[in-house]
Specification:
The complex is a heterodimer of chains A (about 110) and B (about 110). Chain A is built from no helices and eleven strands. Chain A has about 110 residues and is mainly β. In chain A, strand 7 and strand 8 form a beta hairpin. Chain B has about 110 residues and is mainly β. In chain B, the strands form two sheets. In chain B, strands 2, 4, 5, 9, 10 and 11 form a six-stranded mixed beta sheet that branches. Chain B has a five-stranded antiparallel beta sheet with strand order 1-3-8-7-6, with no helix packed on it. The chains are: A mainly beta (about 110), B mainly beta (about 110). Chains A and B meet through strand 4, strand 5, strand 9 and strand 10 of A and strand 4, strand 5, strand 9 and strand 10 of B.
Chain lengths: ~110, ~110
């Protein structure tokens, strides 16, 4: 089975721009979650989607949004980028809540 | 916010020795998962232990869970240089099992 695929691997954006990150989960997995990792805050939960519905949301501003498609692929969008949004963004896929969560290699976003 | 703390923050051992990392958390959990991360890359899933389990093994890994003390430990036996990485515990709370809350991580250095 292929693992979790995140694209792109690296991004450099300018403050004020917006960005879209993509995640393809493991085949058969319907739950996709997104996490932000920074040196200061560690790993923080952004949101989780299951069957195209947002099921859980973390404490991030509305500039962070996501969606899930019928094939379980997910995208997250960050609008009006700030320098503090520079981070490693990780996607995880799972069969459902309570199961193992497998992570992709991440997208390294740098905001300049 | 971080669910809890991992102890120690950093650990340096020689190849062949055992490494023990501890994780404490704050809420009731559905399960606890351990991950490895190499140099800011994606998280590699190591093992999941459910709240009704006390011990689990996978190869050179042994995980224990004490729900009365809200703590878990990860033991890596006969460490290798390739085990050098950061190790994180993540808890899925009862009621919000689709969201993982991560500890602060232990940085393990295995020297030859």
């Amino acid at each position: 089975k292929a693992g979790v695929t995140q694209t792109p691997r690296y991004l450099i954006k300018t403050r004020g721009q917006q960005v879209t990150l993509s995640c393809s989960p493991i085949s058969g997995h319907r739950s996709v979650s997104w996490y932000q990792q920074t040196p200061g805050q560690g790993l923080q939960f952004l949101f989780e989607y299951f069957s195209e519905t947002q099921r859980n949301k973390g404490n991030f501003p509305g500039r962070f949004s996501g969606r899930q498609f019928s094939n379980s692929r997910s995208e997250m969008n960050v609008s009006t980028l700030e320098l503090g949004d520079s981070a490693l963004y990780l996607c995880a896929s799972s069969l459902d809540r309570g199961h193992e969560a497998f992570f992709g290699q991440g997208t390294r976003l740098t905001v300049v | 916010s971080q669910q809890g703390e991992e102890d120690p923050q950093a650990l340096s051992i020689q190849e062949g020795e055992n490494a023990t990392m501890n994780c404490s958390y704050k809420t009731s959990i559905n399960n606890l998962q351990w991950y490895r991360q190499n140099s800011g890359r994606g998280l590699v899933h190591l093992i999941l232990i459910r709240s009704n389990e006390r011990e689990k093994h996978s190869g050179r890994l042994r995980v224990t869970l004490d729900t009365s003390k809200k703590s878990s430990s990860l033991l890596i036996t006969a460490s290798r240089a390739a085990d050098t990485a950061s190790y994180f515990c993540a808890t899925a709370s009862t009621g919000t099992a689709s969201k993982l809350t991560f500890g602060t991580g232990t940085r393990l250095q295995v020297t030859l």
